[in-house]
Amino acid sequence: MRLAFLGTPDFAVSALAAIVAAGHEVVCAYSQPPAPRGRGHELKPSPVQAFAEAHGIPVRTPASMRDPAEIEAFAALDLDAAVVVAFGQILPAAVLEAPALGSYNVHASLLPRWRGAAPIQRAIMAGDSVTGVQVMRMTEGLDEGPVLSTATVRIGPLDTAATLHDRLAAAGAKLIVETLDDIAEGRATAVPQAEEGVTYAKKISPKFARLDWTKPGPVLDRKIRGMSPFPGAWFELPTDKGPVRVKALLSAFEDEAGAPGVTLDGRLLVGTGEGAVRLLRVQREGKGPQDADVFLRGTPVPAGTKLG
Q: In terms of Cα–Cα distance, which of 67, 88, 64, 116 is closest to 6?
């Protein structure tokens, strides 16, 4: 089919690569404008833009798809369909309805649960045992369109937002190619979402990333894994030179009792309001991520240490 692809982050690249490999004609890729990245804050293209340019696909990076000129240019592409994966803008009806067969979104949850910006993180933080990826026909409402296809993915006890992201991206890439085939052959059926069970996955704010050790251990464990690697749940570790910020990147809940925020052994088992959390991977401010045993060789944390 003759397609446009609208996406921005790494999650979307998997789908674009699969669509290209399947032989579809991607006549244009849309992505968010280049943004400052890295320590030098240089303007760099998004992962989707970089992939598209490397594969000879024309790229547009409009500040707003509501711009009349952008709407006109999109309509002029004479598309069979559009595929949208984590694009980062709300699309107007004039864009959604321009392709002959419609516009389709790959969304990383089992709708109507976790509509919105951060479904992967929210699923982990809520303690969901199963999530998935779905392809829906897009409407103007936020992730409210009818669903054409589904792939389910289990959430393991040591899954982080990063590990779950990768499995969902792979599942979504496979699913969108299969669904495009069904659309092209007239086999696709769009089923309206249930009216019950709607939840919203609000964007994760760094200001809520500090760990409150008085919270129950299972809640803290899920918060650590759901915020890993970004923005990274963090705490303060006391040192001779004052407190330093440490991100907790991987953890596991343990049924042990101890004072909240106090280490129960020399291997980063921390007491909480209920049970304890074992920190398995951490990142000291200004350093790279390290497994706990490696971190502790350079920064011993004895039992009885009070974390902030």
A: 88
